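Protein: ATP-dependent zinc metalloprotease FtsH
Species: Desulfitobacterium metallireducens DSM 15288
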Amino acid sequence: MKPKKPQKPKKPLIVYYAITMLILFALNAFVFPSFLKQQITKVDYSTFLSQVEKGAVSQVEINDNQINFFANDESGTKKAYTTGKVSDPELVNRLLDKGVQFSQVFPQETSPIMSFFLTWILPIVIFFGIGQLLTSQIQKKMGGGMSPMSFGKSKAKIYVEAQTGKTFADVAGQDEAKEALMEIVDFLHNPAKYTAIGANLPKGALLVGPPGTGKTLLAKSVAGEAKVPFFSISGSEFVEMFVGMGAAKVRDLFQQANEKAPCIVFIDEIDTIGKKRGNGNFGGNDEREQTLNQLLTEMDGFDGRKGVVILAATNRPESLDAALLRPGRFDRRIPVELPDLAGREAILKVHAKIVKMEETIDYNAIARATSGASGADLANIINEGALRAVKLGRTRVNQSDLEESVEVVIAGYQRKGAVISQKEKEIIAYHEIGHALVAAKQTDSAPVHKITIIPRTSGALGYTMQVDESERVLMSKEEAFNKITTFTGGRAAEELIFNTFTSGASNDIEQATKIARSMVTRLGMSKNFDMMALETVNNPYLGGDTSLNCSSETATKIDDEVLSLIKYAHEKAIGILNANMDKLHELARYLLEKETITGEEFMTILSR
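Structure follows.
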């Protein structure tokens, strides 16, 4: 089949109206007047009288202000002439004497109905049509399609049956969430077996999790599995400038849902309208508060036996109003967390189905290297691997493409054109080997996977990648302390070899301080504070910002405790490097020569 030619965008209707008007104006201004000038010759009154006297005039038509007549020219050709009318009482007698046919034309009187139509009705119709045309064009440009008669209408997108194109087979790494939603799907398919025992369909299910974990994808897959009408709308679309419009949209949405029942209604980013009341965010007549109140009322008002299910998604559950989360409204809170090792491997395989991959791909190795990655991150890794394969002129993605794409997502692209002096390269090499050597000489540290001194676009001048051999869900005090020690290994190597401090350890310092503070304030790994909670995580899904819950005196003690932990880890790192100074020099020289070495190469040299 031949590829279809891209269709040109249609021009707005008002453009054609404007072109037509311009053509008419041009014809009226240039063509018609010149045409009339060519057909009718204008003469003075004396010439008209002389033509009558000669007997050349054959027919005369007298109007209020002019005289039109036909006369033969010198060649005998009949032509049309016109002249101005003057007061001449003898004109009629002259025409009768010469036998000229003449008549007087009186202005035609317009009927009152036609006059009223032309004066009042036609202008109104014309202006109304132009107004409607301009309004429709403005709506298309703004993209909202809102008109004064549709302020209270919801803009929910309706997907009927499986038109979303997604099923649970397209969702991987969220088995618990799929199991909870599958029960809702089964209820919509077979309500009799649930109602027979007296069970009611849950009115609402709240999908909670970090960005990129697949909350919207899960909602679309529910629609594909249930094969029922699916309403999709964002919480921000309820927020309007006029008070009461958001509440009207909520009423309209639930009215449509009741008419289409059984169906599923999905509200994305529900925290936009579902924020807590009474904390100063809302006023008594605030638009968002009225929208939230209407949503609460509608969720109480509709009959759950009809099969209307409300799905909502958010990554800020702590900001939602308690009335919205109580049983009877959102009966279920379904966590959609970051995938584990098995989940990441399954997600990689799902996204790899649409990409040409080599059969020798080790998805488990990529999954182990992407701990903490979301489904969106993993999809991006597969896509980056495909782009790299095309760039290198290959038709299939191999293992090296995926490994490089992992580094691209973590640290950015390689800065191949970066100019770094030999002295700075040596410092960077010793810095990275310091991290790797300290990590390898500790028992509770993840194995070294890769070491490189090639700069990246994220600002990193080099990095040491560690990959756990298995998934870990708990972290002991020893493991946390060893992480801090590993982070201080780079600065320790700089001190021992070059007797200096550089800015290359800035990110290490931040990470070490963050872990040490968590050990003291939140994880109960401090002897001085025991199991006392001193810090609260404000939002676990968006950055994990924290706030202290203690006095200023206690905050000072916390700082001292954190400092002592980091100092002790730093001293331990210096001790490890002093004990392995020969290996530090040998590995640094090897890294300078190769620029990038694998974990196997590193361990081979270390174990000689």
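Remarks: The chain has a mean pLDDT of 81.
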